[in-house]
Amino acid sequence: MDFYQIILIILGILHNLILIIIFILRKWEKWKIVFKLGILYDFLSIPSIYLLIIAILEHYPQKDIIFLSIFILFIGFEMLLDHILKIEFRSNWKILVPYLILYYASNYSIVMLNWNQNLFVGILILVLMVLQIIINIITHPKIEKKSIL
Questions:
Q1: Is residue 144 part of a domain?
Q2: pLDDT the model gives residue 38
């Protein structure tokens, strides 16, 4: 296992574990910790960019470059909306829809990056991703239904 693969595994595990913890803490309304973990999550862009540079310079498969780019794009978009512009975008479907598309695409990307390197690790990251999405759904704030009348 080379350095690229090790960083990819750590990135996949951290991506899922940080989001799982954020979703659980969101349910308990621990907003200060959620904010700090959100910033920590944004720092995953650093090893991701490093991996992207390695993938380009060492001529890794094009799919690695695409998957890493999608993951970096998601982190960048999330960082821009949550921490730079500080926009409450989760109630604005015009911003939320592209955000969710990137969220699911980045999850898929992290799984596939690891799956292509090592089947066992890919399955582990897939299980973490499924757990992360289930926890996200379970802990997501309930949306009040508006009456048409």
A1: no
A2: 95
The answer to whether the CB of 109 falls within 8 A of the CB of 126 is no
Query: What is the distance of C-alpha 63 from the center of its chain?
Result: 18
Residue 149 lies in a domain: no
Residue 46 lies in a domain: yes
Please indicate, yes or no, if residue 143 is contained in any of the structural domains: no
Count of domains forming the chain: 1
Neighbours of 73 (CB within 10 A): 16
* Predicted confidence band of residue 11 (pLDDT cuts 50, 70, 90): very high
How many other β-carbons are positioned within 10 Å of the β-carbon of residue 10?
12
Q: How many CB atoms lie within 10 A of CB 102?
A: 19
> How far is Cα of residue 110 from the mean position of the Cα atoms in its chain?
8
Tokens at residue 87, please?
A: 């926009």
DSSP state, residue 142? P
Q: Is the pLDDT of residue 142 over 90?
A: no
**Stretch 21-46: mean pLDDT, rounded?**
96
Is the whole-model pTM more than 0.85? yes
Domain limits for position 109: 3-138
